[in-house]
Amino acid sequence: MIRGCWGNRKLTMAVSCCLVLAVIALTVGLCVGLKSDSNARDDSPRFTIDHEANTFMLDGQPFRYVSGSFHYFRAVPEAWRSRLRTMRASGLNALDTYVEWSLHNPHDGEYNWEGIADVVKFLEIAQEEDFYIILRPGPYICAERDNGGLPHWLFTKYPTIKMRTNDPNYIAEVGKWYAQLMPRLEHLYVGNGGKIIMVQVENEYGDYACDHDYLNWLRDETEKYVAGNALLFTVDIPNEKMSCGKIENVFATTDFGIDRIHEIDEIWKMLRVQQPTGPLVNSEFYPGWLTHWQEQNQRRDGQEVANALKTILSYNASVNLYMFFGGTNFGFTAGANYNLDGALGYAADITSYDYDAVMDEAGGVTTKYNLVKEAIGQFLTLPDITLNPAKRLAYGKVLLTPSLALLSAEGRAALSKGTPVESVKPKTFEELDLYSGLVLYETELPDMDLDPALLKIGQINDRAHVFVDMELVGTLSREAQIYSLPLSKGWGSTLQLLVENQGRVNFYISNDTKGIFGDVSLQLHNGGYLPLENWRSTAFPLDDTSIKRWQEGQSEKEIRLDSFLARQRILRNGPILYTGTLSVEEVGDTYLNMAGWGKGVAYVNGFNLGRYWPVAGPQITLYVPNEVLKVGSNSLVILEYQRANKTATGDDLPAVQFDAVAQLDGESGDVPLK
Q: How far is the C-alpha of 100 from the C-alpha of 90, rounded, in Å?
């Protein structure tokens, strides 16, 4: 019709024809405009799948993403933008992140959306840095986080709860959580003008269970909020259980690392069984791997990673590098694994989540970064971004003063959660509404028939220092599967078990509650055992708030323990808080070197850097973000459980050191400070 209009030689007919078309076009335009005003914007981006061309479509054009994982809760908020900009400079066009339920909902009915928990601000910054976003709200996320990101209080509220199933109590709590989370994200979905293109439903579920009633419910609960404005998807490990994770009408993807790149064609075939058409996606391509205490740090060759990435991209697949930036499990957020890869028993994750990722723990560019960037540049246009990395500075040695015995009357008053809870059996961490830290369990010993008599405990989660009348007599360990030790007659009358939560299991989630379970019993002369009852349970949260409160109360006092405790190297009377001052003239990233110390927690300016355990290794240093420091005096608190270091020069006071370089590949042993 248009061709007839412009092809006619008679001007009058042409004008008449075009006027008619103009009127029609205007009328149609008005109608479309009215329709657009009453519904979703027609000019907003749309993210869909072309099942014939096996590709994503963005704004009507074929699209594929090369994404990197960065979890907002593993970096301080002031560092979010710099981390994201470094990622974008590598050529990535998408960001992948989890949402951690337990961070935002630390206690029943209590919610946190500020500071490191301001997920909306993080996602808005990601949009400003030109990322499309792949959102993974779980509710279970694994991520090597305590309890896989599920709140600890669920175990107390529902003692028989079955996580990640159609358990009515579990789905009711997920429904409450999503009602808090999802409306906050509405403006960020691609269909509403934002840049969230995909939203995950559950996480590697096929390898966990086969409850499709639960998965279908979670799909519908997620879609209730997403409402077609982003694509729902699943991720499953490529094995014979993939079908258990597939959800009807939800896009399926898989995950694998360089160790399986040689079987990529077979993996794609397995994925095609679940998802016959559409783009191929590796939602977790591993450039590194997680590390536990008491094992070697996991490393992956950068060139092998880059070569494998190019292989994946050669299939026109989309891919997410997990992790691109790993960061740090600050505080007590690191999780644990059980029976992983055939290993026996419980293994706690280290504090660092460096992961041997593409960027290092401080957000710096690595050799692996440059190799990956070169690989991405063969498939996507690299942006022109200038990076300004933070300085890494060595501040040297800081002497520490022993300032508070945790189990003393003063220590209990300052750092415990309150009055001890009395009960026949020991209370769990969860019954005490304690996320992490320590619990002191105390009871009176009966007269002993034997010398020595064996003390036996059914189960300890996870580690206990055993005292009699405040004198250390041994250590029990879930990791080492040591649940008994001998007690000698006449040692004292009060038994004290100081139990540490080393991190709840994050994979194959079960009820990994913490504390003492089963009977605590004492060997009798007749070969039997006498259960010990009537316990006092004292909770020590050891969170930022309690440490800051104690510091503020001590600010005007001369704090130093008596000379006997101050001289102790092996802490035979319980944990001690050591304090010191770091003087800073120029602020930069640094690493707290804990060589020679035993096991404990470190705080700078009241900020919990996380757990240290250099005698076990491999992690020796704790990352200290420059954003935590200030010019002038910075407070340092070390809560040591086992033993203090002594300086190589023989100073009376123990010491630590602030280095410019991380040590994540160390070996256990007493390494003297310089």
A: 26
Burial class (CB in 10 A: 0-12, 13-18, 19+), 570: exposed
Side-chain half-sphere of 21: how many Cα atoms within 13 Å?
Answer: 12
CATH of the domain at 309: 3.20.20.80
Q: How many CA atoms lie within 13 A of 363 on its CB side?
A: 32
88 three-state secondary structure: helix
SS (H, E, C) 274-287: HCCCCCCEEEEECC
Domain membership of residue 9 (yes or no) is no
Nearest to 579 by CA among 414, 463, 435, 392: 414
Which residues, other chains included, contact 639 with Cβ-Cβ below 8 Å and sequence gap of 6+?
406, 542, 575, 576, 577, 578, 600, 601, 602, 603
Q: For this structure, is 204 an active site residue? A: yes
CA distances from 540 to 151, 432, 498, 547, 590 (A): 19, 10, 10, 11, 28
What's the pTM value of the predicted model, to 2 decimals? Answer: 0.91
Query: Of 144, 284, 361, 640, which residue is the catalytic one?
Result: 284
Q: DSSP code of 390? A: P
The two three-digit tokens of residue 293, written as one number: 């205490």
Same domain? For 140 and 178 the reply is: yes
Domain that holds residue 264: 47-377
Give CA–CA dist 424/409, Å, rounded.
Answer: 23
Cα(237)–Cα(507) distance, integer angstroms: 13
> Which residue among 506, 540, 574 closes a domain?
540
466 plus 356 within the same structural domain: no
Q: pLDDT above 70 covers what percent of the chain?
A: 89
Tally the C-alpha atoms within 13 A of residue 167's C-alpha that lie toward its C-beta. Answer: 13
Who contacts 36 (Cβ-Cβ below 8 Å, separation ≥6)? Answer: 42
Q: What is the pLDDT of residues 592-614, one digit of tens each?
A: 999 999 999 999 999 999 999 99
Helix (H/G/I), strand (E/B), else coil: 655: strand
pLDDT tens per residue across span 448-504: 989 999 999 999 999 999 999 999 999 999 999 999 999 999 999 999 999 999 999
In three-state secondary structure terms, 217 is helix
Return the pLDDT at 508: 74
- Of 129, 144, 173, 204, the catalytic one is 204
Residues 271, 372: one domain?
yes
**What's the pLDDT score for residue 646?**
74
Q: Which residue has the tokens 């913490």?
A: 514
Using DSSP, state whether 397 is helix, strand or coil. strand
3 state SS of 40: coil
Q: For residue 240, report the phi and psi dihedrals to the nearest 5 degrees.
A: -70, -10
User: Cβ(580)–Cβ(610) under 8 Å?
Assistant: no
How many Cα atoms are found within 13 Å in the side-chain-facing hemisphere of 580? 21
Picking from 671, 585, 587, 596, the residue whose alpha carbon sits closest to that of residue 400 is 596
pLDDT at 555: 58
Comparing CA positions, the residue from 529, 518, 520, 519 lying closest to residue 449 is 529
User: Which structure tokens are listed for 105?
Assistant: 């909902």
Q: Could you write out the DSSP letters of every residue in 367-386?
A: HHHHHHHHHHHTTSPPP---
Whether residue 20 lies inside any domain: the answer is: no
Predicted confidence (pLDDT) at residue 21 exceeds the cutoff of 50: no
The Cα–Cα gap between 291 and 304 comes to: 20
pLDDT band for position 552 (50/70/90)?
confident
Give me the pLDDT at residue 671, please: 45
- In terms of domains, do 488 and 587 share one? no
**Does one domain contain both 450 and 567?**
no
Distances (CA, A) of 292 to 192, 505, 533: 42, 12, 35
